[in-house]
Amino acid sequence: MTAVAAPAFPAPARRLGLRGGLRNTFTLTWRSVLKIRTNVEDLLGLSLQPIMYLLLFTYVFGGAIAGGTHAYLQFSLPGILVLSVVFATLGTGLMLNQDIANGVFDRFRSLPIARWAPLAGAILGDMVRYSISVAVTLGFGMILGFRITTSPLAAVAACLLLLVFALAMCWFSALIGLLVKTPQAVQWFGFLAMFPLVFGSNLLVPSSTMPGWLQAFVKVNPITYLTGAERGLLTGGPVADPAVRSLLWALGIFVVFAPLAVRVYRRKT
Amino acid sequence: MRYDATSALAVEATGLVKRFGKTTALTGVDLVARPGRVLGVLGPNGAGKTTAVRILATLLRPDGGQASVFGYDVLRDAYQVRQLIGLTGQYASVDEGLSGTNNLIMIGRLLGLPRGQARARAAELLARFELTEAAGRIVKTYSGGMRRRLDLAASLIGRPRVLFLDEPTTGLDPNSRTDVWAMIRGLVSDGVTVLLTTQYLDEADQLTHDIVVIDRGKVIATGTPDELKARTGGQVLLVSPAEPARLAEAAALLEALAGAEVTTDAEAGAVSVPVTDKALLPSVARELDDRGIELAEFTLRKPSLDEVFFALTGHRSDDEDTPTRELEETR
Description:
- The complex is a heterodimer.
- Chain A is mainly alpha-helical.
- Helix content of chain A is 79%, strand content 0%.
- Chain A contains 11 helices and no strands.
- Chain A has helices spanning 18-38, 40-66, 69-88, 90-102, 104-109, 117-144, 152-179, 183-199, 212-220, 222-235, 240-268.
- By secondary structure, chain B is α/β, with parallel strands linked by helices.
- Chain B has 11 helices and 14 strands.
- Chain B is 35% helix and 25% strand.
- Chain B is elongated and about 80 Å long.
- Chain B has helices at residues 49-56, 78-84, 100-110, 115-128, 144-156, 174-189, 201-207, 225-231, 247-258, 280-290, 305-313, and strands at 11-20, 23-33, 38-42, 64-69, 72-73, 85-88, 162-166, 193-198, 210-215, 218-223, 235-241, 263-265, 270-275, 295-301.
- In chain B, a hairpin with a 4-residue loop joins β12 and β13.
- In chain B, the strands form 3 sheets. A 6-stranded mixed sheet of chain B has the order 6-7-8-3-9-10, with helices on both faces. A 4-stranded antiparallel sheet of chain B has the order 2-1-4-5, with helices on one face. Chain B has a 4-stranded antiparallel sheet with strand order 12-13-11-14, with helices on one face.
- Classes of the chains: A mainly alpha, B alpha/beta.
- Chain A binds chain B through residues 2, 4-9, 11-16, 20, 23-24, 27-28, 30-31, 34-35, 38-39, 99-100, 102-104, 106-113, 117, 181, 268-269, and chain B through 1, 3, 5-8, 10, 34-37, 57-59, 70, 72, 79-80, 82-87, 89-98, 102, 106-107, 109-112, 138, 154, 158, 161, 191, 329, 331.
């Protein structure tokens, strides 16, 4: 039996401050951004999906709904922006789910870092993904003939509003990612929740031909207000009311789902 | 202040209990790892090894009992414990979507190293684990052995005082296993305390100073490998006749003289019997000689850990059909 030796190392730090936690968060944001480049499927999905929506909706529905593809594009592009970015938030849940399944989160949890940093880092990193989605949709739409008829400043505001809304929605996605077992289940639950929300709105068609009960749903749907605000900011029309309502909705979604997601996350950790 | 510079124990656990729903994964596990030594936690699949490691590494809350690392409680002082430990295992993993270098830089940065130092530490560890050539590649493209080495490197960035290795060589080919063993020996010579779980008895025999045998959530034996071997039946006499045809005859003779059940291995042409009284040896040799049975081998040896394990648990080490399956944390 060897003699007992005192461990020769300094006493570990007692606690990690907020600044340390923020530093952890930025490191993990860097990781998420690096992964966008290497995850080819995700990058293709992010950029090809909006292009597919634009082509399909513009040329399939355009003539029937608006009597011409150009007129319809002016109407639908703000909606397609919303649709692309809302569906892109599913990626947040997917990646959290994969990190947990792969054991990457367990490695994080065994490190002396802020417990909330992996969640915050993932979500901040996803803002870059949403920006890609917005840029591709807007850029390709303009190639097809979409014109911003307001001002560059209004267009920037339109993009920021989308990002703020996505920042709220991705907490819902994160909650799903933390609750279900497989990436496939994340996709299914996400689509089941997001499809009615996205298409039960005036995003692609005016709501005037819908039955009354559906119109009632469209009227309270946050996607309707977000789409309205995007139309106002990009092609003219009322802005203040739909913008304020969509911001309030974003706040509401955040206040409900962020604490829930954090709670589930903490219970797992 | 709970920090205790004279604390003699790197890891100490008493009465750990963990339940997953109706299944009890651990029913009161005690274990101790002394500084600078390797503690092997041995047991079949589903014995509770991984659950124990996850509790000790602050990943799982026990339902009962206490555990500490250098005097820091894994629940109350988790933040301090995390500064002292490194973890590599089936559960704690590297990020498949990043390159080897970026994985290590990320961990260095998370541990508070400035960018330049994180980069230098990553390069140093990649070189040490012979991954320099693959450093820029995405981990998804790594072989199993390379991944395991990167896993090890990742757990060493923060120069841990205690390293938890959960089945570090499971699924590796023999060459990679030997590599990992050499690396573990190197760490121990640097003064790192290692707690490793394994199902491989030869691995425990090769690497560990102390062993805890867990079966069905309980510790069923502790001691050094030699102590464990000594505890179960002392020594084994192995006799191998030069003519394989006379094996049965030798076996019958051995059984009569030793008064114990013999194990005949027809393929190896050998018969063995546990021996408690060494005075038996000359008489066995004489009797065999009298009957003209020439010998290819006549040895007295310690039992292998395999035999010890069988004696302790009543089943073989690779027996997967144990009732208590190790359950993952419910997701």
